[in-house]
Write a structure and sequence with these properties.
The termini are far apart. This protein has 72 residues and is mainly α. It is 47% helix and 0% strand. It has one domain.
Length: 72
Amino acid sequence: MNTEFPWWTDAQRTLAGEARRLASTLALRSLAVYASRELPRDALSEIARHRYFGTVIPKKHGGSAPMFELRL
């Protein structure tokens, strides 16, 4: 699926393309990961290298509620 929206900036298009490529690469291994219940270290490293850990997607865009609240 190659969904792009007309209001996206070049940076958003780049991010979406990078995320799509990473997901495609990891998807090839998904059945093995599911069967073993372990995510290989190299896959974790690749996700971390792209800085996707801790990515928050707002509810209005289909994400879940925040994992924590920051109160000052």
